[in-house]
Write a structure and sequence with these properties.
This protein has 332 residues and is of the alpha+beta class. It has two domains: 189 residues, D-amino Acid Aminotransferase, Chain A, domain 1 (2-Layer Sandwich); 114 residues, OB fold (Dihydrolipoamide Acetyltransferase, E2P) (Beta Barrel), CATH 2.40.50. The strands form four sheets. Strands 3, 4, 5, 6, 7 and 8 form a six-stranded mixed β-sheet that branches. Strands 12, 13, 14, 15, 16 and 19 form a six-stranded antiparallel β-sheet that branches. The radius of gyration is 20 Å and the shape is globular. The termini are far apart.
Length: 332
């Protein structure tokens, strides 16, 4: 089997082009992986090159069984937590795996097929890769390995998908050109992400201690930021909510080992109580909005991202209300 490709990345929605010849899919809220699958071996490669297979043994076993039936595969998809009915949950439901507690049901949702039976498919248009994906991966709403939905713009399925995303509060949607090849490791305008809520990764650069009388131990709030294209880490605010006691204890121990004397931020406000750390950890954060000064309002911690390199974290362009409404063109 050829070397595993880096995942193709979606561009911000921006001003959407005419959507004839596009398809719409859910933006899954989990861990993006490239699955390299044979009957004897499964590797689940995260974006930073970590094999996640050991953390998801049920997915590994199901993919190995799939390969035994259909042959070797390379699939692009998302590891997601699911409830008892098989419905995908939000990213924070996966955090039990970070804490070494294997209690969460999980699934692998495949949305692209990059190779099948030794044949590289990345140069083929999306519609041809999708045909192969539909042949080798079942839809199976309750399956540990399943195929993600995708609907051509202008169809009834696209309308239902968009309505479900708005009604159920999904993270977002992905629009894809059906004639686009798979561009490994590149961010392409042929894939567009439409964010329906304010959520992204931020680098942890420090923390504060709990205030007197606070009902918590280990730390009070995380101090987070993002890198610019010149490699400077910019401060984006403090995140003081969203932690379980188990997370406070585990993350507190990790932060203590990363302490350093100086701030890693180029523009952090002076904080007498701040404890600075090496900026190697990435946190997923949901927030209400970002001020004109670049500070998060009402941020909440969702979990750690060990599948992302801190140096790759950039401030994502928010999807405008206009672009969200513009997506209705796909659904109508």
């Amino acid at each position: 089997m050829s070397p595993v490709p880096a995942p193709m990345l979606a561009s911000p929605a921006g001003d959407l082009p005419p959507l004839a010849g596009w398809t719409i899919e859910p933006k899954w809220d989990g861990i993006r992986v490239i699955a390299e699958v044979t009957p004897k071996r499964v590797a689940l490669w995260s974006r930073n090159g970590i094999n996640k297979a050991a953390q998801f043994p049920e997915v590994e076993e199901a993919l190995r069984s799939l390969a035994a039936r259909v042959g070797a595969l390379v699939l692009d998809g998302e590891l997601v937590a699911v409830d008892r009915t098989g419905k995908p949950l939000r990213f924070q439901a996966l955090q039990a795996r970070h804490l070494g507690v294997d209690v969460t049901r999980t699934a692998f949702v495949a949305f692209d097929c990059l190779a099948a039976v030794g044949e590289d498919l990345t140069r083929l248009p999306w519609k041809d890769r999708r045909t192969v994906l539909e042949q080798v991966v079942p839809k199976a709403a309750r399956g540990v390995v399943r195929r993600g939905d995708s609907f051509r713009c202008g169809t009834a399925g696209a309308a239902r998908l968009f309505d479900a995303a708005r009604r159920e509060g999904w993270e977002g949607l992905i629009l894809k050109r059906i004639d686009a090849p798979y561009l490994s490791g590149k961010r392409s305008p042929s894939w567009r992400k439409v964010k329906l809520e304010h959520e992204q990764e931020f680098v942890i650069g420090g923390y504060t201690l709990p205030t007197d009388g606070a009902d918590r131990d280990h730390f009070g709030a995380l101090l987070v930021g993002y890198y610019d294209d010149r490699g400077a880490l910019h401060y984006a605010g403090k995140v003081g909510t969203g932690y379980t006691r188990a997370t406070l204890a585990s993350l507190g121990r990790t932060l203590a080992a990363l302490r350093q004397r100086t701030s890693p931020f180029v523009d952090a406000p002076r904080r007498a109580e701040a404890i600075w750390v090496k900026p190697t950890l990435v946190a997923q954060v949901r927030y209400n909005e970002m001020t004109t000064d670049g500070v998060l309002r009402q941020p909440s911690f969702l979990g750690l991202r060990d599948d992302k390199n801190a140096r790759d974290v950039r401030l994502e362009v928010e999807t405008s209300t206009h672009a969200i409404l513009d997506t209705l063109r796909c659904a109508s």
